[in-house]
Amino acid sequence: MEYAVEVKSVTKSFGETKAVDDVSFSVEKGELFGFIGPDGAGKTTLFRMLTTLLLPDSGSAVVDGFDIVKDYKKIRGAVGYMPGRFSLYQDLSVEENLKFFARVFGTTIEENYDLIKDIYVMLEPFNKRRAGQLSGGMKQKLALSCALIHRPDVLFLDEPTTGVDPVSRNEFWDMLGKLKSEGITIVVSTPYMDEASKCDRIALMQKGKILDIGFLRDIVGKYDRELYAMKSSNMHRLILDLRAEENTDTVFSFGDFLHYTDKRGVIDKVQMKNEMVLKGHADFSVNEISPGIEDSFMSLMNGK
Amino acid sequence: MEDRYIISAKDLTKKFGSFTAVDKISFEVEPGEIFGFLGANGAGKTTAMRMLCGLSIPTSGKATVAGFDVYKQTESIKKNIGYMSQKFSLYEDLTVKENIGFYGGVYGLSKQQRKEKTEFLIDLLKIQDARNKLIKELPLGWKQKLAFSIAIIHEPKIVFLDEPTGGVDPITRRQFWDMIYEAADRQVTVFVTTHYMDEAEYCGRISMMVDGRIAALDTPAKLKEQFGVGTMHEVFVKLARPQSA
Question: Among all residues of chain A, which has the CA nearest to that of B244?
Fold first, then answer.
């Protein structure tokens, strides 16, 4: 198997902080691979090493067949990178930014127009506007267009959807789906756990380490505790009441339900309901449920 | 306008040239409510919040916040509200103690009050060992919780939280909401924006902004009923992209 990205034991420290701590993984060609984790997990540092903007302290990595240290110049021509912070020229127009990036990579907008067409048509009405004057959503689309202008083999997107509303996030993932169908390998990071389902495979990251890696269903499938969804009309009180119970293991809010695990594993639902009704939760309900990615992530964070 | 509301807005409008960012919004917020302020990017949330915080003068309409007028009493508003955003944070190169002392001073607390508050917050957050550590050495979750505590250090009646949990891990995100609930229990009104739709469920009421207007405003349960869907995510999709839903 030939990999688009192959990383072996890469480590990077800043002072005493190990930003990326002995990380290994591979991404197959044509795969849409997601790094899921909160701020400070090490996602950006990892991406900056893979795009040759930072040198690792130790370990090795190959991107699109090139070594990230020895062949850094070749990698720069072969990958596209969209950093988390908007980094285009604010004082250049939409069109000027695109032309600039096209020329830097020795190509033209026309040459790869079909690849960026779907995204660029949404930008074209603002062609003469300065990039700094665009809305958040339009900046994002321009940054993606610039990262794609030289038809890269591997595209690195660092938190492209952070701070973006849920509907626009969906639309962005649809765009990535189209790029994947063009055969581009995509490595993307996000702090939003629900976006895991949009990726082929994911790595869960926390404090510089990969907690788990694989297909979403396999990662979630490893969650081996009984999980219950509970509800009452006073959720905050219910959380406090459950936490006061000695057999309670974890209680976490999940939208209009809370997710509960018990030190005994399986619980007697009727007994639980009776106890909670006695505590004033007349409309208490409890059901077994299957875990989701956030349940898994929190479980892994707790080392369980 | 009635005094019992902590926020009262009537036809509040803000225009930038020919563009109407906030278009005649009217709503009230009760003391002690957790009020979720949702909307797509560019819907006008930030502009509306800036007016309510006394940072931007409206083009037309009326509003009071904590009893103060958003045109004439902006300085009083600033003194009587708390504000925290993901971007606005603590001074990274000051210690925990120094940050608490600094913001206490900004909000006009006396030396004695600052001293008491410092001890109180350090105990509350269980960060005794970190009191003399620089903010930049703390984990993000601690910073968020400390930032929230500092945003209400002057015991305001209302606190504005602008995407307070962005980028935070799922456990810390939930702990942060515990703090929001505790503040609401003490009758602090919480005005919060978020892009996490599960967090929308934790709010008492939700307003949804679309193109500068408030397109819907109710409890999460009633909004889901109104739109005939099971989650706030679906409510959001239906309102933000009516053509595709």
Answer: A167
